[in-house]
Amino acid sequence: MHAAQATGIATLTLDSPGNRNALSADLVADLRSALAAAAADTAVRAVVLTHTGNTFCAGADLKSPCDPADFLALLRETAELPKPVVARVTGHVRAGGLGLLGACDIAAAGPQSSYAFTETHLGLAPAVISMPLLPRLEPRAAARYFLTAEAFDAAEAARIGLLTLHGEDVDAALEPVLAGLRKASPQGLAATKALTSAAVREALTRDGSRLTELSAGLFASAEAREGITARFERREPSWSL
């Protein structure tokens, strides 16, 4: 991951192409550190979270997953940052990466982006990521896509509340958003974000420990071992009909 700053906007770029920006322990630690630095920098008015390559985030690093408690802390720190966090997506987002997207205040994407909650096909559940997502998503759509692991596009992601906006040119779509954030006062942004992120922060505080334990238990289960092994072996898991 690398960071840059220009005219009040700190841009944090996920850049781990070897694992499609999966949530490894190192990536989560680097992102938490970069968010803390942005919070402390008085020249930063907002944060843009983006990526290199054709994948924003592939979800958990199945070969070297981060501690679920550290991922929970990352979601909390994103939601509690006193500055808006804007996701800029031009590629695929899967599983835990969708939780990161949900923790952002504004999310914009281009036409080549795609989305899928793949957990049930691995013997898992979208446990921890449900906290930043369920307050934002249309309930029937959340039930469908959480359960079925179907992939969907940017237009559908915007319709169900996962994205704020999408367009053929994501940077053009974000121009008025970033212009508005640059003109806002730091105090005004912090107080307003506290209002708009309240439901997400409440869910993370209320359910964080319970859902982190659920996630860890599922990852340690026999079904998850079969699902993850099947994914690496490029075959269907034993329960697939």
UniProtKB/TrEMBL annotation:
<dbReference type="Pfam" id="PF00378">
    <property type="entry name" value="ECH_1"/>
</dbReference>
<comment type="similarity">
    <text>Belongs to the enoyl-CoA hydratase/isomerase family.</text>
</comment>
<dbReference type="InterPro" id="IPR029045">
    <property type="entry name" value="ClpP/crotonase-like_dom_sf"/>
</dbReference>
<dbReference type="InterPro" id="IPR014748">
    <property type="entry name" value="Enoyl-CoA_hydra_C"/>
</dbReference>
<protein>
    <submittedName>
        <fullName>Enoyl-CoA hydratase</fullName>
    </submittedName>
</protein>
<dbReference type="InterPro" id="IPR051683">
    <property type="entry name" value="Enoyl-CoA_Hydratase/Isomerase"/>
</dbReference>
<dbReference type="InterPro" id="IPR001753">
    <property type="entry name" value="Enoyl-CoA_hydra/iso"/>
</dbReference>
